[in-house]
Hints:
Order of helices and strands of chain B: HHHHHHHHH
Order of helices and strands of chain A: HHHHHHHEHHHHEHHEEHEHHHHHHE
Helix content of chain B: over 70%
Radius of gyration of chain B: 18 Å
Oligomer: heterodimer
Number of strands of chain B: 0
Mean pLDDT of chain A: 52
Distance between the termini of chain A: 80 Å
Largest sheet of chain B: none
CATH topology of chain B: Rna Polymerase Sigma Factor, Chain: A
Shape of chain A: rod-shaped
Number of strands of chain A: 6
Shape of chain B: globular
Amino acid sequence: MHDPLQDELLSAYLDGELSADERRLVERRLAESPADRRLVEELSTLSRSLQSMPRYELSARFRDDVLRRAERAMLTRRDVSSAPRPAELGRWRWWPIRGLRPLVWPALAVAAALMLMVVHRQQGPGPRDVALGRRLLTERAAEHKDGAPTSEPMMRSRSSVGKGAQKEAGPITVGTDGEPVAGASPAVLDAKAIVAGEALVVQEPAPVAMSKREDQSGPPRGARMPARAAQPDTYGNGVEVQLRQRKSQSTALALDRLNGPARGAGDPTSGVMIVEIRMSHRAAQTQAFDQVLARQQIVWRAEDRWQEGRDVAGRPTGTGMEKVRVMATSSQLRGALTDVMARVAEFPAFEVRPDPGAPRQQPFKYYFRRGGPAGEEGADKLAVAVDREIRADQGRAKGAPASPPAGMAGGADSDKLGEDRSAVSSPKAAARSTTAAGPPPPGQPGAAQRDAKGQPIPPATSAPGDQPSPMQQRSPRASGRQPDGGPASGPPPAKPLESVVGGVPNRARNAALSDETAEPLFPVLFVLRMVDGDPAESKPPPAPDVR
Amino acid sequence: MPLRGVRIIEPIVNDDVQLIDAALSGDSTAFGELVTKYQNRLYNTMVQVVGSVEDAQDVVQEAFVQAFVTLDRFRRASAFYTWLYRIAFNTAMSQKRRRRPTASVEETRARTGDDPVDEAPPPDRRMLQAERVAQVRAALAMLSEEHRAILVLREIDGRPYDEIAEILALPIGTVRSRLHRARLQLREQLSAFVEPQA
């Protein structure tokens, strides 16, 4: 029977890891025991086998790959958490006092919160970070210059590209962190993300994108936004203010499509603005979107809002989105989008798909041809979906003209969105819209079934000849004239708006309705999509469902 | 009786210190020299630890990245390679924990079947050698992680006991006993491969 302790000495003897006394002991034992000699011989052979294992070599570019990755990791600091410490292997030794173990997790939670606060407030990159970041940006800029297109949708400005170019402008996707999530070159965005980290280097905006834009089109129109951005921030500290200042540029680029001087009465460039908003569960619970509309005094009818796979006629379609069609001014929409952008938790991202300057008969596919939430494929799917929707509406208009849903298009089902446009641009259509459709009186089913949650009412309950809709009422009242500039001809609203406006009644709304503004209204289709899972992972937004 | 006093003498680490200082001051190429210096050594060790050339490459790359990011935490109480090896070993263990353990001989052979550096022995000897290598690999793959790690550290990387103790955070006595048990287990595994053929 061998003594395990003595056997260990044999192994250590083989490795030359014995003291002089131990070595003498082992040598005496080996001289006496053939079994021990055999064991040592076997272990020696085993060692030779292991040492003769083939050797491998890494490729010559391994070093460069490592350095590239290391510099990125240095800037983003994403790998620090798994950095080793001397005693990490084998067992946990970092909490020696057993009695305090129950306090470990609370202490860690507090420490993590404090660290987050410190990191967010310090936000100062070290010299090593800045040096690496600048170098990386330079490299990315070179890559971008070599391979990226010279004009990008996000980099355009209406003032420089004109209407013709705007027709082809792709959708604008803006994450509520204020950065475009589509449209800009991946190389640029990548470099910006690396340098900025989590709003780490707000003071150093990516020079590539900004200089390109300035070279091409002058300063961004975000200059309009500071007044709003400078308002007291209800969402955070100075970091948030910086974030919002950064957002304002993207916001202005998006809103640039809305504020053009050519948009308005009788202008063929007037069209439907589609705003697709990603909405978190929290937003749904707090009815955040209703609050956004209410704050901007954007009113809507029950018939113009449908959800959960119901089309405008109340029929299930199998999709999981909610749509709201409204008439709004540029100011209202700007305010709504700014609110949406400020509420990051509720609205992780939104996308503006303008429809400027297109003839009415232009297929909708045209507008969604470029860009899109998931690239070309997603845009095509969306285009097909919208195209199908329009064609379905046209089919309904031909098949059932007697019971049109009293939408903002004045009850006509044919080419719904196109009719919306004509309702704004044509005096005749506007006059018709003030009389042909509207909310039913409170006693009628359409109004009575409209609850505070904005549940849709089957539009079949509405019929031509009902009271004018609030939006249709507002169009002439708000402007004091027809969209083409003529005097208002429709009757004043006969009913208060609370009966048809979802959400909490807003006192400011009626005041806003009497506000004599000269801004024309144009149709906007809000598409609300629920975000599944972590809202932070929803950027860029996935491709929309295809009906 | 062969008495192998295998104790690899570490090269003077002054070069490492200078390179580390340069890297900390923002000179990435200095760190690149450290990478060049240690990449293959670490890679060969990690191939045996993780049992796959692809995984080993990932581990080594990750280890160098971690070392670069946390270089300012290196207290220089040990050699740079020891510190680097600890990082790599941590990374390898984390990676293995994330993945399903594999102990299949065929799978191990398939995964490690990458072309090694060719020493160009005669063809018949090469066949025998390849067979033996495959057997050793398979036997290594069947060991527990702690036994495989300590064997690789000692036999393939030639680490002395005190460094192994430092890397694995074990007392030297434990290193000695665990290493001996690991050898005995490897011998058992290899004999299991040989006996059926006999």
